[in-house]
Design a protein that fits this description.
Helix content: 25-40%
CATH topology: Rossmann fold
Largest sheet: 6 strands, mixed
Low-confidence stretches: none
Order of helices and strands: EEEHEEHEHHHHEHEHEEHH
Shape: globular
GO molecular function: ATP binding; ATP hydrolysis activity; phosphate transmembrane transporter activity
Protein name: Phosphate ABC transporter ATP-binding protein, PhoT family (TC 3.A.1.7.1)
Oligomer: single chain
Subcellular location: Cell inner membrane
CATH architecture: 3-Layer(aba) Sandwich
Function: Part of the ABC transporter complex PstSACB involved in phosphate import. Responsible for energy coupling to the transport system.
Bound molecules: adenosine-5'-triphosphate
CATH class: Alpha Beta
GO biological process, one term: phosphate ion transmembrane transport
Structural class: alpha/beta
Number of helices: 10
Length: about 250
């Protein structure tokens, strides 16, 4: 089942066209990896999925992105609701300079939840969802910035989960982490996709192979091909994909 359908998406930074006629179906409860050489538009594309590019000057977008069949770029689209439904985790963990608890409770509070008991529940559930609860349950009132990098990144995932999104966007979420923390996040993705639809940008080909069900290969602002990850890695249809995954360029 398709969760997000991208139709004829073009994106321009001023005169420069960074995305060219992108068409990708993003399947519900699957992990879709976006791969491709530096500067080919992966992050730009990821940001179109929750309209983060709206925050950048001089960006123009054509085409449509349907989330559950509704165009997120239509005038009627509710941006606050969209960013709640489509959460984002960045390359570098970016917890707020607050306690572990406050990092998670912040979003639900903004969305109107005030009851302490309910907030406690959300904090525990979100931290469990991000496989972090056991490590932090005794230090909820301690600064989040005192956690290790890998813990901080799982905290950022928990912070997304706290507002009950449907989709998680991850922009190279493990590139700043050590191998063990990376493995923890990769394992976590396997669990998270039971409830969420996940789109992940990764430079790491092995990681794409390990964690994703589908892969889209980007090159110079275009999608060369999208297929089951197994097919992309074992029998790509396009020569350029083959050259990239076998390390001939990029
Ligand atoms: N805010 C911006 N203003 C102008 N051009 C931009 C902006 N952000 C990105 N670009 C350009 O758009 C193109 C795509 O960039 P993007 O960051 O999406 O690529 P990427 O595939 O994610 O790269 P990387 O793997 O290095 O992160 C690049 O040529 C980049 O220079």
């Amino acid at each position: 089942m398709t969760k997000i359908e991208v139709n004829h998406l073009n994106l321009y930074y001023g005169d420069f066209q960074a995305l060219i006629d992108i068409n990708i179906p993003i399947r519900k409860n699957k992990v879709t990896a976006l791969i491709g050489p530096s500067g080919c538009g992966k992050s730009t594309f990821l940001r179109t999925l929750n309209r983060m590019n709206d925050l950048i000057d001089n960006v123009r977008i054509e085409g449509e992105i349907l989330l559950d069949g509704i165009n997120i770029y239509s005038e009627k689209s509710d941006l606050i609701q969209l960013r709640k439904n489509v959460g984002m985790v960045f390359q570098k963990p970016n917890p707020f300079p607050k306690t572990v608890y406050e990092n998670i409770a912040y979003g639900p509070k903004i969305h109107g939840i005030k009851d302490k008991h309910k907030l406690d529940e959300i904090v525990e559930k979100s931290l469990r969802g991000a496989a972090l609860w056991e490590e932090v349950k005794n230090r909820l009132d301690k600064p989040a910035l005192g956690l290790s990098g890998g813990q901080q990144q799982r905290l950022c995932i928990a912070r997304c989960l706290a507002v009950e999104p449907d989709v998680l966007l991850m922009d190279e979420p493990t590139s700043a982490l050590d191998p063990i923390s990376t493995l923890k996040i990769e394992d976590l993705l396997e669990d998270l996709k039971k409830e969420y639809t996940i789109v992940i940008v990764t430079h790491n080909m092995q990681q794409a192979g390990r964690v994703s069900d589908y892969t889209s290969f980007f090159l110079n602002g275009e999608v060369v091909e999208t297929d089951l990850t197994d097919n992309i890695f074992s029998k790509p249809r396009d020569k350029r994909t083959e050259d990239y995954i076998t390390g001939r360029f990029g």
